């Protein structure tokens, strides 16, 4: 792996760790578009680039999530009861998501990523006030919600925060608690999705050297080292920002990344 790629991945990892801590998004919303750019510049097989970016993104979230959630837990912001209710569905959905992705070509996968991210950004930017009586559903509903979050996160290589944060705020969970809880949900999403991407990627020929299934191991190592160091700083920043500012930052970030992936889908 050449020095320019290492430098790019280090910078990306630092930015992703900060964003993961601040927004509870696991970093995948940043990682996938930028890794797609880096892998394209390094002339990886075009038909595998988006799949590899998504798989490597999910694998890094295992490490980023742990670092981020420790910082949020120290502030008692993580709703562990919610994590326990959502996690079973998330584990199943996160295995299924990469399987769906393996059936799609790179352009379709990039388009799916863009649509999901733009929708989440719109929900956050509109900042519609939920009904005062609305609350999180009972256990069966939480299992179903976890399944949907897991499938979408596994499909597009994210920590699930682009779905789970809007879902929780829609159910009257405070934004800071939603971000912190989403960070905790990133680990089961990443674990199941990583195992799935290894399993389904092992059957694919012509992947670059140093790949484990769809996961590009050098990128996983460099990004994880950088992101773990900046995630706690992002978490501290999140708790110092007002709610409306945090929502706007979240939404604008998602829009910018959706735009790039649309370009990748149709360019």
UniProtKB/TrEMBL annotation:
TM segment ranges: 48-66, 78-96, 108-126, 138-158, 178-200, 212-233, 245-263
Annotated keywords: Cell membrane, Membrane, Transmembrane, Transmembrane helix
GO CC entries: plasma membrane
Membrane topology listed for this record: Multi-pass membrane protein
Compartment list: Cell membrane; Membrane
Family stated for the protein in its record: Belongs to the 4-toluene sulfonate uptake permease (TSUP) (TC 2.A.102) family.
PANTHER family cross-referenced by the UniProt entry: MEMBRANE TRANSPORTER PROTEIN HI_0806-RELATED
Protein name: Probable membrane transporter protein
Organism: Noviherbaspirillum autotrophicum
């Amino acid at each position: 792996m050449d020095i320019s790629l290492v430098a790019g991945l280090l910078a990306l990892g630092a930015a992703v760790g900060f964003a993961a801590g601040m927004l509870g998004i696991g970093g995948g919303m940043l990682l996938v578009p930028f890794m797609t750019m880096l892998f394209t510049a390094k002339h990886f097989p075009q038909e595998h680039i988006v799949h590899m970016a998504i798989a490597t993104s999910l694998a890094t979230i295992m490490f980023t999530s742990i670092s981020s959630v420790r910082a949020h837990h120290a502030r008692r912001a993580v709703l562990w009861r919610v994590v326990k209710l959502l996690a079973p569905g998330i584990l199943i959905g996160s295995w299924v998501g990469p399987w769906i992705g393996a059936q799609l070509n790179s352009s379709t996968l990039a388009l799916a990523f863009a649509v999901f991210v733009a929708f989440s950004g719109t929900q956050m930017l509109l900042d519609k006030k939920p009904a005062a009586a609305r609350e999180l559903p009972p256990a069966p509903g939480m299992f179903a919600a976890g399944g949907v979050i897991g499938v979408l996160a596994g499909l597009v290589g994210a920590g699930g925060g682009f779905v789970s944060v809007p879902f929780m705020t829609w159910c009257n969970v405070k934004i800071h608690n939603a971000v912190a809880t989403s960070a905790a949900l990133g680990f089961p999403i990443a674990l199941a999705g990583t195992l799935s991407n290894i399993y389904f990627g092992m059957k694919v020929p012509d992947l670059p050297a140093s790949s484990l299934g769809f996961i590009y191991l050098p990128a996983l190592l460099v990004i994880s080292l950088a992101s773990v160091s900046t995630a706690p700083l992002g978490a501290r920043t999140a708790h110092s920002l007002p709610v409306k500012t945090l929502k706007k930052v979240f939404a604008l970030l998602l829009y910018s990344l959706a735009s790039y992936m649309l370009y990748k889908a149709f360019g």
